[in-house]
């Protein structure tokens, strides 16, 4: 099936189906042989058509495994939902920057939201087009600005007047005109975790709503090396209701109109932030279950688009959207092995070989990830445990006080919804090598990043 045909099919199907739990794993609706991305078949967990047990045995753990079909599905679904608008999806690279993920999105026609020269370098290596890249972030350095301008990014989204002045200076020095947008901080509560709320005035992001017009005025009057190209906002991550999006869009669109009238902008970027359902990340394979549980997470792509599109369409501008987590979150799992069991007076611990250095979300944001055995045990019994890693930190856990099926030493567990902000936030803490990453596409599993060796970890270090 050609990619164009497949995409077209998704447009039709996407619009029809995206009411039924769009932020979960939707590959059930993918035409062709990939029926469900992560599901049990005869008691064993599969990613598309590949057994996760076999991947864990072959490549070792901790191991990140991604489903290409899920990424494709999510991209296409959002693309379809936004189709009433002249739009561009700029995938937020920070969520998962593996070259194969970026290449998949580039081939679907996606652009990218980058936050460093390194991310732009990755996009280019993966075959992405810099002319579809927006460059976010509060602290861009001279080298990064020069690199972005030389590569011809679509827009640099500035977050302060000082930054605008600096971009103007650097652009002048290298004989370029820099395309810029200003990020507005609308002071809207995204009602998400405090650490990932970005659109309140106490957050470091963007310029206050009230000052935006004056800033654009000064850019036009005093910064000749800047070309005003758009306006951007991003109020936070893992939003599970459309209300804050609507509030922000309603508040900012009159401003967008004014900026458009006075400065002739091309685009308005509504940022990312579409939340995923961490509790629904495993496909039960049971349609009725999906229907029943779709209410658990009210934010579907359809609901999102239906709520924001009517406010955006009349602007007559190109609309950019910067999803990260939505695109890849439920497309990835982290596989880990149970090393030991420890039964203490207060708790039972399952000590696994993945730690907070591999997946920091549970301890950093109290992030809840579904944890399930790769091979289902022959019993329905569950036990309440803490799933903890080998790191020397009390906060090194993947789950606390969690009822999970009975697993024993040597068994593998899958930590679901680990495709976003999993590997990209991993570190070498405790001198632990970074895990390998696998991309599954139908029957095929490719190592898309090798596990680090200890020599890799020590590379560049010298004894004085
Ligand atoms: C500027 C910007 N755009 C997009 C995103 C992507 O957010 P999410 O992964 O929640 O879609 C982020 C991260 O929150 C961001 O900072
Ligand atoms: N890293 C966060 C999301 C932050 C988004 C970056 N702006 C998470 O894992 O949920």
UniProtKB/TrEMBL annotation:
The residues the record assigns to binding substrate are 325, 361, 365, 393, 421
Q: Where is the Orn/DAP/Arg decarboxylase 2 N-terminal domain?
A: 70-328
Q: Where is the Orn/DAP/Arg decarboxylase 2 C-terminal domain?
A: 64-419
Pfam name, any one: Orn_DAP_Arg_deC
Annotated active site:
392
User: What span is annotated as the signal peptide, if there is one?
Assistant: none
Q: Which GO terms describe its molecular function?
A: diaminopimelate decarboxylase activity; pyridoxal phosphate binding
Cofactors per UniProt?
pyridoxal 5'-phosphate
Q: Which residues carry this modification: N6-(pyridoxal phosphate)lysine?
A: 94
* Keyword annotations: Amino-acid biosynthesis, Decarboxylase, Lyase, Lysine biosynthesis, Pyridoxal phosphate
Pathway given in the UniProt record: Amino-acid biosynthesis; L-lysine biosynthesis via DAP pathway; L-lysine from DL-2,6-diaminopimelate: step 1/1
One GO BP annotation of this record: lysine biosynthetic process via diaminopimelate
The family database entries (HAMAP family) matched by this protein are listed as: LysA (MF_02120)
What is its quaternary makeup?
Homodimer.
Q: Which PANTHER family match?
A: DIAMINOPIMELATE DECARBOXYLASE, GROUP IV DECARBOXYLASE
Q: What is this protein called?
A: Diaminopimelate decarboxylase
Q: Per the UniProt entry, what species is this protein from, by scientific name?
A: Prosthecobacter fusiformis
Protein's gene: lysA
């Amino acid at each position: 099936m050609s990619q164009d045909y497949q995409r077209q099919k998704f447009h039709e199907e996407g619009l029809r189906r995206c009411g039924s739990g769009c932020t979960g794993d939707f590959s059930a609706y993918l035409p062709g042989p990939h029926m469900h991305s992560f599901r049990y078949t005869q008691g064993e967990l599969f990613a598309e058509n590949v057994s996760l047990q076999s991947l864990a045995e072959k490549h070792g753990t901790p191991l990140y495994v991604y489903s290409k079909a899920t990424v494709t599905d999510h991209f296409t679904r959002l693309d379809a939902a936004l189709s009433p608008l002249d739009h561009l999806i700029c995938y937020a690279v920070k969520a998962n920057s593996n070259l194969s993920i970026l290449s998949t999105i580039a081939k679907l026609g996606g652009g990218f939201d980058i936050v460093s020269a390194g991310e732009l370098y990755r996009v280019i290596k993966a075959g992405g087009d810099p002319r579809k890249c927006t460059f976010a972030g509060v602290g861009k350095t001279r080298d990064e600005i020069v690199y972005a301008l030389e590569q011809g990014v679509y827009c640099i989204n500035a977050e302060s007047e000082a930054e605008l002045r600096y971009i103007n200076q650097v652009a002048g020095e290298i004989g370029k005109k820099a395309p810029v947008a200003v990020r507005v901080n609308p002071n809207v509560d995204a009602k998400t975790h405090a650490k990932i709320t970005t659109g309140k005035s106490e957050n470091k992001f963007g310029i206050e709503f009230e000052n935006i017009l004056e800033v654009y005025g000064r850019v036009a009057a005093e910064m000749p090396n800047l070309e005003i190209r758009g306006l951007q906002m991003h109020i936070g991550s893992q939003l599970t209701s459309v209300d804050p999006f609507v509030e922000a869009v309603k508040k900012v669109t009159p401003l967008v109109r004014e900026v458009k009238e006075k400065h002739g902008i091309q685009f308005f970027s509504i940022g990312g932030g579409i939340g995923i359902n961490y509790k629904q990340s495993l496909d039960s394979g049971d349609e009725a279950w999906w229907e029943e549980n779709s209410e658990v997470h009210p934010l579907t792509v359809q609901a999102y688009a239906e709520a924001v599109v009517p406010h955006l369409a009349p602007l007559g501008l190109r609309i950019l959207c910067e999803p990260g987590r939505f695109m890849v979150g439920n497309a990835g799992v982290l596989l880990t092995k149970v090393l030991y069991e420890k039964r203490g007076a207060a708790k039972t611990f399952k000590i696994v070989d993945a730690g907070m250095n591999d997946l920091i979300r549970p301890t950093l944001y109290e992030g809840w990830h579904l944890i399930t055995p790769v091979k289902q045990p022959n019993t329905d019994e569950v036990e309440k445990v803490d799933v903890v890693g080998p790191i020397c930190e009390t906060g090194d856990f993947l789950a606390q006080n969690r009822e999970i099926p009975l697993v024993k030493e040597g068994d593998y567990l899958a930590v679901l919804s680990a495709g976003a902000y999993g590997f990209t936030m991993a570190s070498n803490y405790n001198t632990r090598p970074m895990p390998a990453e696998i991309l599954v596409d139908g029957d095929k599993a490719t190592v898309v990043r090798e596990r680090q060796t200890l020599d890799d970890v020590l590379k560049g270090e010298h004894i004085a």
